[in-house]
Every structure is written in C-alpha cells, then in structure tokens.
Request: fold
Amino acid sequence: MRKPIIAGNWKMNKNPEEGANLVKELIPLVKDAACDVVVCVPATDLYAVKQAIGDSNIHLGAQNVHFKESGAYTGEISADMLVKSGVEYVIIGHSERRQYFGETDTTVNQRVLAAVKAGLIPIICVGEKKEERIAEYTDPLVTYQTLIALTGLTAEEVSKVVIAYEPVWAIGTGLTATDEQANETIGVIRKAIAGKYGQNVADQVRIQYGGSMKPANVKGLMAQCEIDGGLIGGASLVAEDFAKVVNFDK
Reply:
C-alpha cells in the first residue's frame, strides 16, 4: 500500500512570520494524520517555518531548485542549500514555472536529477492545457512529460519520487477534473512508469492530483484507486481548510 501524501503549495504567499504562525496553527490539527504532510513554502520562509515545524509530523518542502551545485546563477537556490535548510521535498516543473519562467521538460529533468542526487524528494508536476485535453492529447502528453522528467534515474530512485498530475486548466481556476478523469490520467502516468521501469516500481510511485483539490472534493478524489494524495494550492493557506484535506479519511 502506498502511503498518501498531501502537500501544500503556498506559492508566493506568506512572509516568514505569517508562515510560522500558519504552521503552528496547523500542527495540532494534523498531528494524527494517516498521510505524509508537507508544506512547500517560499524560500524566504524556509528558516522560520522549519523552526515552527520542530519535531511535529509536518515535512518541509521548497518550490523550486536549480540544477547546478553552485555558480553564477543570481537569484537561484541549489539542492545542497535546500538540504542544509532542512528541506525534504521540492516541487519541480509546476505549470506556473513552465508558463511564466521558461521551464521546459529538459530543465525539469535537470532539476530532478540534481534534487535526487542531493537526497531531496522531487514532486514532479505534469499536466495538459485545456486545448490539449480537447484535442485528446492528454495521454501522450503526460506520458512524455513523465518519462522525460525521470530520464537518468535508476528504477530505485524512480520508486521514491512523487508525481503530481495537475491539469493546467484546473490550476487556480476553480475547475476540477472529475474524480474519474483524474484517476484515469493518473493511471496513464503509472502505466508509463511501468512500461519503462517495471510494474513493481510503478506500484511504489505516489501520484498526487494537483488541480484545485479542496475540502469539498477531497473525499471523492482520494477514494479513487490511483490517486495517492494532493498538491494543494489555495486551500493550503488556511490551516483549517488544509487540515480538512489532510484528514480526508476522518
């Protein structure tokens, strides 16, 4: 059985004080969670949030990582810097990074390799735009994105990554794939992994749904056999809402 993982993506929200306060409010609400709980916070919040997390069951995540160990890359943060800051997980290839900051499938792969080498667990985002779904390109597109992102990893390394299926048309729009649509596409992703790395590896990879999962729809989505958790945007900024998603089984 794959252990579910619910990760909050704060995006560009919360200063260090606000972030620490949110985590302190969240800790008692999720202390008995049956899933892994992760908060992926802005780089400026890492230290404050790490201190607030303390010895609780919440894990610290970042929202991006550079693919070089060091060098003349002003404004970037290396995998080693994240590890030394207490980070365990890192989001890679989010649709907003692809849309606004020139992220490509190639750079996603480079970041994944750097993250895994440093001991971080990447949360690799894949997904289609609305026009791509309408044109029935969803399955080949998510298959390609997934396999390119994983290129260069061993089967053992692949088994430990997290994939987040985020239909781009459902990010920040209030739209959500139906439970069945999300489950079907995540099944396609798992099949792609099985074809390349074997069924045993595919059965170990945790695949989240990342398109406007919230308290109102989490139970239906998490009841699907292929869905192992969620990458939560807006709902992760309110402790009570995020806790409801985390405690979907209660």
